[in-house]
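Worked problem 6 (solution included).
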Amino acid sequence: MITDINTKDTKLIWKIAFPFILGSLWQPVIGILNTYVAGHLENENFLASLAYGNSIIHPFYWIFGSVGMAITGFTSQKKGLNEKNKILKILNTSITFMIIASIIIIIFQSSLWNLYSYIYDQNPIIENLTKDYYSISILGIAPQLIIVSSSSWFLGIKKPKKIFQIWSVLGISHILSIYIFTYHYDLKLTGIAYSTVISQWLTLVFLIFQVVITLKDLKIKFFIGFLSKLEILFLGKSFLNLFVRTFMLQSIYIVGTYVSTNLGSTILATYGLFLQMISVSYLTIDGPTLGSSPLIGESFAEKNIYRLKKIYKNAFLSGIMTALLFSLIFLIFGNHLINALTDIESVRMESYKYIYLVGFLPILSAWSFQLDGAFSGMLKTKEMRDTMIISAIVYFIAIFSITNFWGNYGVWIAYLFFALTRGISLNYHMNKILNKIQINE
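Solution. The predicted structure is:
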């Protein structure tokens, strides 16, 4: 592996990864800002309600947003084959899919709330706070899904600067909005929700202009056209595999929320706080992964497997080094980060107990992240689905078993088991794929 590590490929990966990371980091920055605002309100109920509400809304962002992996892989392969018309058709098809999905979610929003309300059975204060937050936040789901899927398309054509610009508009508009609604009008949790929705719709308008500019740069004339039936079926199969894969991933966070809820509002607040910290590390570690994905997709389409392996190995090293940095930050400065996010003493004291477990998550997760990027570039979504199902089952067994003895420690130990299982199972399939294909030098 060492012989394949070189400065040229690493620079190429980071040329895509760096602006993508800067853009993607706006997501956890927004989450941390929301956590900071909720964490400095009167009591832990607001922080717990934010975690509860996000556990309903955010899975849709991730589950439907996960099809972006297929969009990136498919787009990069068509770009490698220089099929320009297909590039636009992929964008049209993916946006249409997201609009339909959003309409369905909006129609069934009340039923969805009733289901979650029944499952979590929160105390009336948290229930009422969360319901108001949910009813507003759900209105931003359509623009959010379109933003996520379009970002994947921009990544597939290797336009990471556009991604940075789009997410920067989202982040900056959210900061301005949250100041107005929470500090000026003192709307508390509903102010966070209004800020989120307004920034999402403003960003969608900006996104439309960026798509027009990009198509002009690529010399692609806009037209209303979609992929062929056969291509839609192929992409749809990938979508379904990734949908199942990410549904299982999000079910882990939902179960984690459920278990934390049963352990009390302070534990739930702690859980939400840690998720925000972890999301920053995950999205940064994911930079080299997603930076390599379009390059791997192009190489796979061109049947240049030798270059594919070189790109993967260089990205893997970058991911491991980035993960190690975050693990060290959490282990050394974790308590300071907790203090910065909340001044609620009960939440601080509880969080201190688990920070060393959370600190090992980035380094254990880096392996599976990089493998995910390679599989999505090659559109090997079946393997991504199967390994996630296995890993989720391991997590479910671990969390319900260990929490019976060690309480909240079991939640984070189960996450460590999950990360390790994902890496091992994905690596097994990667070796099988590489052993089956002929290396073209």
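Discussion: The chain has one domain: 2-436.
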